[in-house]
Amino acid sequence: MRAFTAHHYAIYDAKFTNWASEVHDKWVYDDFKADPLYSKQWISLTSIGYHEPSDTVFVGIGSFSRELLWKFDRRNKSFESCGYEKVAGPFDAKFHRSLEIDGDTLYAGTALFHDIDKQFEAHGGTLVSYDINKGEFTKLCVPVERVYIQSIALDRKNRVIYGFGAAPEVFWSYDLKTSECRFIAYIGSGAEFAESHCPVIDDDGCVWGTYGILRAFAYDTGPDSIRIFKYDPKTERMEFFRHGFVKTSYADKAKPDTALNIGDGYLYYGTEAGTLQRLDPGTGEAVLLCRPSTKGSTRLAALAQNPRDGLLYGVTGSHYDTELFCYDPKAEKLVGTAPIVDKASGDRPDKIHHMVFTPDGTIYGGENDNNDRSGYLWELEFEY
User: Fold this and answer.
1) In angstroms, what CA-CA distances link 344 with 173, 237, 263, 348?
2) Which residues of 26-35 are buried (b: 16+ CB within 10 A; e: fewer)?
3) Could you give the 3-state DSSP secondary structure of residue 44?
4) Torsion angle, alpha carbons of 288, 244, 318, 376, to 10
5) Confidence (pTM)
6) CA 208 to chain centre
7) Are 68 and 60 in contact (CB under 8 A)?
């Protein structure tokens, strides 16, 4: 794998020392909101997008302050809020995996931090558009009342946005041509969180994800409860497969952590167990390609194709065991794996939730769920 240099940049850079002793499994939504430090600076960078005309990296974050969209200027290495907090709903908490940039327009959907006790005050996640040149937000719709938006995917050819929501877990669409919002299906049983981390659209315009079965006659859902579905918008029908992704053990639910279409006829998935898998849209069958981590670490939430060499790059691991890997999809071979370390400071990301490439072959990755400090934006520059 090519040599690379890692740097990190901070929107906020607060340290937190009381997670284990005071916060974990004790605080609820109102406690975080009431704490000056956690409410403002305990942030996760959950979704990344790149706008080539302005050479700007857009960052969607999770924050109790509702400052959910930022832009990072690559030239002067600085952040600026896009001002979403000025138009946000009171319970808008994050742009989770829901940034899509199309031309000079950015689309995003708001996810939640609150619990079920706030449902009569929290009216549901909002799908928004942002005019990058004008710096203006437009609220498009609340796809499902009281339900917030976990992730979206844009079908650029047919001009449709698809989204997954929670809780409950739902699947919906928004037609950009007609402004029609359509509820499609429930995809969760309520017994466990079953949805794929993000929708993915195949070359025929069909949407792929996962759903959960309940087994109402049993005391738990069983080892194979998270299964694959396909939605065909031409027929408006869903196919619920009776299998999921490849498991590494009995306890592994093989739950998708990310999904990517690189245009070679297949769909590529990272799983929470840390595996890279390939799905054939013609059959719905998945094969396990590799488990890239040298440490056997879990989580593979970040995956992207390098425009310079056509190879797949991803980040696996958590709890500061994060590693960048490179995979050749044509040769079906893991090319290499290396730890992510900012050598100037010695810092490492706790985990990477989403990443993108810029045209010059640089990676930008968003760090999330760090209980020790604010999440960072990570920049990985390769030697070409």
Assistant:
1) 45, 53, 38, 11
2) ebebeebeeb
3) strand
4) 100
5) 0.96
6) 15
7) yes
Does residue 297 register a pLDDT over 90?
no
Tokens of 253: 């639910």
What does the alpha-carbon distance between residue 116 and residue 110 come to, in Å, rounded to a whole number?
16
Do 4 and 381 meet the contact criterion of CB atoms below 8 Å apart? yes
Widest CA span in the chain: 60
Structure token digits, residue 367: 């760090």
The secondary structure element, H or E, covering residue 248 is none
Tokens 């890997």 belong to: 325
Of the pLDDT bands very low, low, confident and very high (cuts 50, 70, 90), residue 61 is very high
- Angle at alpha carbon of residue 65, lines to 59 and 69, rounded to 5°: 20
String of b and e for 60-94 (b: at least 16 CB within 10 Å)? bbbbbbbbbbbbbebeeeeeeebebeeebbebbbb
For residue 243, give both structure tokens.
Answer: 């299998």
- Tokens describing residue 246: 């490849």
Residues in Cβ contact with 203 at an 8 Å cutoff, skipping those fewer than 6 apart: 261, 263, 265, 281
Encoded tokens for 21: 């002793």
Q: What is the pLDDT of residues 187-227, one digit of tens each?
A: 999 999 999 999 999 999 999 999 999 998 988 999 999 99
CA–CA separation, 196 and 98 (whole Å): 13
Neighbours of 22 (CB within 10 A): 12
Residues 6+ apart with CB under 8 A from 17: none
Instruction: Give the model's pLDDT for residue 207.
Output: 98
State in Å, rounded, how far the first CA of the chain is from the last one.
11
